[in-house]
Design brief:
The protein is 33% helix and 23% strand. By secondary structure, it is of the alpha/beta class. The protein folds into two domains: 3-175, Flavin prenyltransferase-like (Rossmann fold), CATH 3.40.50; 178-279 and 294-397, Rossmann fold, CATH 3.40.50.10300. The protein has an eight-stranded mixed β-sheet, sandwiched between helices. The chain binds cytidine-5'-triphosphate.
């Protein structure tokens, strides 16, 4: 099913529903808006009708609607999101009241339900509201915690509607999660590392981190717990993913090792710097003290160490090559005991590094290989996660 229902209630943050609709539409999901009567005091239904391309529903048994619309529609949607959700709608749903379209619809849907509360802090923290939330959580309803910040009442506190990105990301996870990823920790590394020469200068590379961020996002959507260990990049991390920010290859090594025991999969998409300065000064090097040469040394090879310490984890490596790509990648796979290697040909200008697109070969230890022809990094990450899921189901690997 490619349709979701978005319930909107009477909160000042109702305008954020517009972004929620857009973000779902970007994922090729149609959005059916259901408004409470009081929400129409803030925004007319026509606004949501125009934005979603489907008539926004307000009342039960509206003349224009199909008969028993709430039942028909309930069987058509794969998710019900209520954002923003007031204390009132939460209380109604918790007690099973069905006196308008949205509350009736809630009782009719069999799909997952996601609620994003938005209200004054005192109302949100009131034991009655908290009890209502708990009751709904016990029934399987998922909540997106409100954020702290300035509220409509002028006070600062908790109760602000979570960001549209966070709401949509969690919504997509509820639709797209797959049993094979449940309770699995996937560690993804991304971006470059920086190796310091002195406090202001460093050695780094052109990695943008896009591939790793897409992989982290995709793994989260499929239901995994995700830790994204990221070098310095300009990207916004995907919502729902735990982010560990690191600078140097040694920082990255320590961060990966911290999670390695609990991890089911490690995807090393980071472009870890292969060299660092043998001596990094604590003081900034002055022009007059310019050294005539600097010495480099190899950084620790994180993947190789993971290969040595491996106890059942699936290890996925990347290889950035400029010639004889597949043969070299196979050598790396063997040396680092990988279960899958993703090979980028970085001699091609229009893919890889800073590009939004990529074309990669996937190679497995048993000799199997697959080309993912040039497409977006988003699509490439989907294909890689599909292969990882299949590897878990078949438990093929290099253990
Ligand atoms: N990698 C790592 N630690 C390093 C260097 C690389 O864990 N110090 C990982 C990368 O994240 C990637 C894989 O090893 O998944 C291959 O990296 P790449 O730089 O292509 O290969 P190298 O083994 O470093 O060899 P070379 O640069 O000589 O091709």
């Amino acid at each position: 099913m490619n349709k979701i229902a978005l319930g909107v209630t009477s909160s000042i943050s109702i305008y954020k529903a517009a972004d929620i609709i857009r973000l779902f539409q970007k994922e090729d999901l149609a959005v059916q808006v259901i408004m409470t009567e009081r929400a129409t005091n803030f925004i007319q239904p026509e606004f949501f009708t125009a934005l979603s391309g489907q008539p926004a529903v307000v009342r039960l048994f509206d003349q224009k609607q199909r008969p028993i619309e709430h039942i028909t529609l309930a069987s058509e949607v794969s998710l019900l999101v209520i954002a923003p959700a007031t204390a009132n709608i939460i209380a109604k749903l918790a007690s099973g009241l069905a006196d308008d379209f949205l509350s009736t619809f809630y009782l009719a849907v069999k799909s997952p339900v996601l609620i994003a509360p938005a209200m004054n802090e005192a109302m949100f923290l009131h034991p009655q509201t908290q009890a209502n939330i708990k009751k709904l959580k016990d029934l399987g309803v998922v909540f997106v915690e409100p954020e702290s910040g300035y509220l409509a009442c002028g006070q600062k506190g908790s109760g602000r509607l979570a960001s549209p990105e966070k709401i949509v990301q969690l919504g997509l996870r509820l639709i797209r999660q797959q049993p094979v990823f449940k309770d699995k920790l996937i560690v993804v590394t991304a971006g470059p590392t920086r190796e310091a020469l002195d406090p202001v200068r460093f050695l780094s590379n052109r990695s943008s981190g896009k591939m790793g961020y897409e992989l982290a996002r995709e793994a989260y959507e499929r239901g995994a717990e995700v830790v994204l260990i990221s070098g310095p990049v300009e990207l916004r991390p995907p919502a729902g993913v735990k982010v560990e920010r690191v600078i140097s290859s040694e920082d990255m090594r320590q961060a990966v090792l911290k999670y390695y025991d609990q991890a089911s999969v490690v995807i090393m998409s980071a472009a870890v710097s292969d060299f660092r300065f043998s001596q990094a000064g604590r003081e900034k090097i002055k022009k007059e003290n310019l050294p005539s040469a600097v010495r480099l040394e190899k950084t620790p090879d994180i993947l190789e160490e993971l290969g040595r310490l491996k106890r059942g984890q699936l290890l996925v490596g990347f290889a950035a090559e400029t010639s004889e790509a597949k043969a070299r990648a196979r050598e790396k796979m063997e040396k680092k005991k990988l279960d899958l290697i993703v090979v980028n040909d970085v001699s091609q200008q229009d893919i890889g590094f800073e590009s939004d697109d990529n074309e990669v070969w996937l190679l497995w230890p048993d000799g199997r290989e697959r080309l993912i022809s040039k497409t977006t990094k988003r699509k490439v990450s989907q294909e890689i996660l599909t292969e990882i899921g299949a590897m878990f189901n078949g438990r093929k690997g290099n253990n």
